[in-house]
């Protein structure tokens, strides 16, 4: 009778743990979805910003070369180069938002997004499992230390399974 009660209690505990695992899986799905969306937003904006800065630097360096007195260009060529390169610079600044949206749209395609979310979930799951394993080791060590302080004998594997 007592064994049946223990078995029922263990089955109840197992069911509770199973529900908790399912909750963690759902949470992991939700977190990976939000994490992917935010990562796409942050990374694409940073890439756009850095690319634009490099492009503007190239344009400015070229403008300096063309307009430099060492280049010995006529005032007409210098004026024309300044005008053209100024327009190129303006177009580049205007197109930044469009480029950002294009890249974000590509990264949000269902198959690309799903693959990214799966990678995030995998890494998050590994991290969670590592933390759980470390916590289990720490708890076992703390229990052993407590039992030693109290002069009790640490439970055997069989007794652990019954708990």
Concise description?
The chain contains four helices and no strands. The chain is mostly helical and 163 residues long.
Distance between the termini: 17 Å
Low-confidence stretches: none
List the secondary-structure elements in sequence, H or E.
Answer: HHHH
Mean pLDDT: 83
The largest pleated sheet is described as: none
Residues in β-strands, percent = under 5%
Radius of gyration computed on alpha carbons = 31 Å
Instruction: Please give the count of helices.
Output: 4
Assign a percent range to the helix content: over 70%
The geometry reads as elongated
- Oligomeric category: single chain
What's the total number of strands? 0
Structural class, please?
A: mainly alpha
Region (Disordered): 139-163
Keywords: Coiled coil
Coiled coil: 7-34
Structure description:
This protein has a domain at 21-115. The chain is 90% helix and 0% strand. The protein is built from four helices and no strands. It starts with a helix and ends with a helix. The chain is mainly α and 163 residues long. Helix 1 (2-67) packs antiparallel against helix 2. The protein has helices at residues 2-67, 75-107, 110-150, 157-162. Residues 7-34 form a coiled coil.
What's the SSE blueprint?
Blueprint: H1 2-67, H2 75-107, H3 110-150, H4 157-162
Helix pairs in contact: 1-2, 1-3
Features:
163 residues, mainly alpha, 4 helices
């Amino acid at each position: 009778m007592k064994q049946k009660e223990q078995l029922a209690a263990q089955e109840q505990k197992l069911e509770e743990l199973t529900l908790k695992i399912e909750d963690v899986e759902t949470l992991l799905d939700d977190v990976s979805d939000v994490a992917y969306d935010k990562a796409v937003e942050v990374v694409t904006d940073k890439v756009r910003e850095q690319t634009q800065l490099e492009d503007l630097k190239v344009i400015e360096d070229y403008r300096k070369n063309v307009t430099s007195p060492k280049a010995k260009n006529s005032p007409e060529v210098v004026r024309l180069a300044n005008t053209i390169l100024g327009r190129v610079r303006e177009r580049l600044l205007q197109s930044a938002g469009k480029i950002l949206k294009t890249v974000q749209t590509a990264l949000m395609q269902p198959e690309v997004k799903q693959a990214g979310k799966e990678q995030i979930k995998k890494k998050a799951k590994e991290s969670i499992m590592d933390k759980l394993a470390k916590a289990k080791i720490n708890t076992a060590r703390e229990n052993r230390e407590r039992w030693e302080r109290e002069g009790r004998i640490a439970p055997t594997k069989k007794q652990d399974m019954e708990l």
